[in-house]
């Protein structure tokens, strides 16, 4: 059996610094100071932590603010620390190194990698192989890097998408139902239900909680046209940031009113087109030029917004950023709806085209990845490389 600690980079050392009162953890790449409270609340002693749920039995806000380390001794696990509240626990320096970010976390999700048409080969995974945990882990790793994967060879029965999507997480039901049918309708309640082309967009930006992952499942595609398109929102956001920092700033700060309204629905959400994290990385792109309305900001700000939106939409429509393909029955597109844009070409009503769609939240695949990876480590089935099979 291989523990997660054994998989991490070795060579972590630790020593107690009586001057600062902290434990100093060092590796070949750097060092970090760990204060007593940070360490004390990570005790995994059986009377401190429920090992089934990994929830604490105690409330760390009730620990003394001036808690100190009163003794530090080498132990079989690494280092045994005694705290001023009388508690003692032996810590594994490697696990502390992972927890403190000094060592790579074997359970961390693979980081997103921006792609364009030039360097993207659409990841395709064989649905039949996904009972193999290593195949599932590889598929998910590829999905986290690219934000899109095609599951091929899925069942083609109507509504089978529910079983396909549930493989990755609970269904996120919306006013469109658990599943929605993408086919031409006489009285369409969304332009998706017509034969019109749809420019690359993200779904449902008008929700307070935008669905995290979208599935589009092809049951029939005999119509002329209707090619599916995907675009990396991360790539176009980075392109905008690089070529026009001022426009990028407006895109990340000006709240836009996204709206969907019908007889029985009135959804609205005010948010910028681009959400970025404190370190500048893209967290969420909302782009749907059918239903976005800027506020009545000053003309200069609005001019910048209109230019930023025009540029983002232009990048999304640029063949350099777009991957186009024709879905065939049994293909199921899985997309990160906070990152990947999707669209389609117009199609003629000379054949039947029937797709079904549904949503799940990000938690499902992220949890599945961590649990599968952990079990692969524990059973010795882990492999160093990960990445969805491509064709
Ligand atoms: Fe859509």
Describe the structure.
The chain has 391 residues and is of the alpha+beta class. The protein has 2 domains: 4-99, NE0471 N-terminal domain-like; 124-378, 4-Layer Sandwich (Double-stranded beta-helix). It has helices at residues 4-7, 36-40, 93-99, 133-146, 161-166, 233-243, 245-253, 299-317, 363-378; strands spanning 13-17, 22-27, 30-34, 49-50, 55-56, 69-74, 79-83, 88-91, 124-126, 148-152, 171-172, 180-182, 198-201, 213-221, 228-232, 256-261, 266-271, 274-276, 282-285, 292-293, 322-325, 332-336, 340-344, 353-360. The strands form 7 sheets. Strands 9, 10, 11, 12, 14, 22 and 24 form a 7-stranded mixed sheet that branches. Strands 13-23-15-21 form a 4-stranded antiparallel sheet. α4 (133-146) crosses α9. The model is unreliable at 1-9 and 383-391 (pLDDT under 50). Bound molecules: fe (ii) ion (FE2). Residues 192, 201, 203, 342 line the site of fe (ii) ion (FE2).
């Amino acid at each position: 059996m291989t523990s997660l600690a054994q998989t991490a980079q070795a060579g972590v050392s630790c020593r107690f610094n009586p001057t600062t009162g902290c434990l100093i953890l060092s590796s070949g790449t750097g060092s970090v100071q760990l204060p007593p409270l940070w360490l004390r609340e990570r005790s995994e002693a059986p009377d401190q932590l429920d090992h089934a749920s990994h929830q604490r039995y105690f409330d760390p806000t009730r620990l003394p603010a001036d808690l100190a380390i009163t003794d530090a001794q080498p132990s079989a696990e690494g280092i045994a620390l005694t705290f001023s509240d009388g508690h003692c626990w032996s810590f594994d320096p490697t696990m502390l190194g992972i927890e403190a970010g000094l060592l790579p976390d074997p359970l961390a999700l693979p980081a997103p990698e921006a792609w364009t048409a030039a360097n993207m080969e659409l990841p395709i995974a064989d649905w039949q192989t996904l009972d193999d945990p290593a195949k599932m882990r590889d598929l998910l790793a590829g999905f986290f890097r690219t934000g899109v994967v095609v599951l091929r060879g899925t069942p083609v029965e109507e509504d089978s998408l529910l079983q396909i999507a549930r493989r990755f997480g609970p269904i996120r039901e919306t006013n469109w139902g658990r599943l929605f049918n993408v086919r031409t309708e006489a009285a369409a309640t969304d332009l998706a239900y017509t034969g019109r082309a749809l420019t690359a967009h993200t779904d449902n930006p008008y929700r307070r909680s935008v669905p995290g992952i979208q599935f589009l499942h092809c049951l029939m595609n005999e119509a002329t046209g209707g090619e599916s398109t995907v675009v990396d929102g991360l790539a176009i956001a980075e392109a905008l940031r690089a070529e026009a920092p001022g426009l990028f700033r407006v895109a990340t700060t000006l709240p836009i009113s996204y709206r969907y309204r019908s007889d029985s629905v009135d959804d609205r959400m005010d948010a910028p087109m681009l959400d970025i994290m404190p370190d500048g990385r893209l967290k969420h792109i909302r782009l749907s030029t059918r239903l976005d309305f800027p506020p009545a900001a000053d003309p200069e700000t609005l001019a910048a917004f209109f230019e930023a939106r025009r540029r983002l939409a232009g990048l999304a429509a640029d063949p350099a950023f777009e991957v186009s393909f024709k879905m065939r029955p049994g293909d199921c597109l899985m997309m990160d709806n906070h990152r990947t844009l999707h669209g389609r070409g117009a199609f003629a009503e000379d054949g039947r085209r029937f797709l079904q769609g549904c949503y799940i939240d990000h938690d499902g695949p992220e949890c599945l990845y961590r649990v599968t990876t952990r079990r692969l480590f524990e059973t010795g089935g882990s492999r160093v490389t990960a990445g969805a099979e491509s064709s």
